[in-house]
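Retry 2 of 3 after timeout on previous attempt. Resubmitting structure tokens to design endpoint.
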């Protein structure tokens, strides 16, 4: 193994170390959990094609609460779609799960009142259930599973005492606290000191905003040139690179490719 200059390995969580369990999601009545895969997984459900439009309509209701301001640092969902402003605020911790859900339901009822044809009658209860599920910490954690090949890669990195492992991830506080205590969470978080975990809702900032990287670097007093960041979204990778941090894009089923990239950096 080549001598590595890396001393810090920074990990994303959603879509990298954790992902929605599609089998569990697809077993739910009327695919009521489908929006979770759309928002957190970056993909659409494979077994419920009739709910794709329903998911898009649920997102449109969230957009009617407010879209991100033009010219601002654009926050995207893992599937590349701009995130509704309510989702940005929720993940940044500036509004609670309850406030986000209340606003979403108000616009849901307003939408079906003013535009009865926007959501067919047979889909109205599905859209409503999707909104409830999205902002429910218990539902989110119930659906999450560990990405096992990535967990194995994390364990390999943790075996080397020359590295300090960090987390930098967008997550709402109540859901993260449940994830941290969960069985699947402990399979991952046992490799991190709790003080080395930075969640967006803890600081009121969200990737890929410049300020969250600046905060992370200053808070942990890390040298960007001695750090590598692993994430599943291109814009987050680009933002970290702009701050001098070597960054690797994790793609679905791309653990082996990531392993080779870490080898090239001399990390493993």
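Retry 2 succeeded. Sequence:
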């Amino acid at each position: 193994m080549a001598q590595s200059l890396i001393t810090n390995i920074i990990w994303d969580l959603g879509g990298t170390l954790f992902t929605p369990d599609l089998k569990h999601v697809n077993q739910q009545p009327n695919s009521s959990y489908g929006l979770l895969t759309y928002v957190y997984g970056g993909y659409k459900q494979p077994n419920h094609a009739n709910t794709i439009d329903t998911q898009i309509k649920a997102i449109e209701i969230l957009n009617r609460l407010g879209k991100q301001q033009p010219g601002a640092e654009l926050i995207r969902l893992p599937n590349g779609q701009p995130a509704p402003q309510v989702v940005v605020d929720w993940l940044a911790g500036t509004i609670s799960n309850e406030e986000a859900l209340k606003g979403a339901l108000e616009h849901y009822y307003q939408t079906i009142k003013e535009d009865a044809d926007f959501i067919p009658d047979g889909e109205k209860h599905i859209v409503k259930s999707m909104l409830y599920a999205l902002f429910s910490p218990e539902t989110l954690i119930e659906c999450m599973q560990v990405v096992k090949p990535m967990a194995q890669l994390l364990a390999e990195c943790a075996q080397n005492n020359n590295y300090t492992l960090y987390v930098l991830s967008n997550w709402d506080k109540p859901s993260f606290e449940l994830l941290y205590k969960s069985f699947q969470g402990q399979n991952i978080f046992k490799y991190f000191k709790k003080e080395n975990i930075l969640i967006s809702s803890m600081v009121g900032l969200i990737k890929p905003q410049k300020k969250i990287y600046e905060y992370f670097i200053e808070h942990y007093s890390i040298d960007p040139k001695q750090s590598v960041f692993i994430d599943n979204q291109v814009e987050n990778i680009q933002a970290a690179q702009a701050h001098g941090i070597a960054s690797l894009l994790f793609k679905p089923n791309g653990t082996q490719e990531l392993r080779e990239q870490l080898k090239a950096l001399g990390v493993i």
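Attempt log closed. The two ends are 7 Å apart (CA to CA).
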